[in-house]
Structures are given as structure tokens and as C-alpha cells.
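Input chain follows. Return C-alpha cells only.
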Amino acid sequence: MKPGNPPLQSTRLLDQLRERIRYMHYSLSTERVYLYGVRIFIRWSGRDGQMLHPGNMGALTALA
């Protein structure tokens, strides 16, 4: 990211993503696609049908 970014106002992940996308002046359709992709990833990365909070996911590991 470019230097001098304003601090994020929200504590929620998707709201922070929206703030940053809007700060970068991306289009509304780009914002929707990015949010959709993040939601899908969070759901996909859940184990045994349990969704995990992104802060609790940890580092990526190789799939066995």
C-alpha cells in the first residue's frame, strides 16, 4: 500500500476491506467481487463445517 494510508475506522474484517477499497478508488463492482471472494475463502477454509474467524486461521500450510 502507498505510504500515508489513513488508519482503518472499523474493527470488522469486511468493513476494513470496504474502507481500503474505497480509499483506493476502486469501482463498486470490484468491491463486490473482492468481498465475495473473501467470504468464499473464509467459508472454504473452515474445518468440519465450522467457519473460522480470519484472526484465528494462522499461517497457510501445505495440503496433505
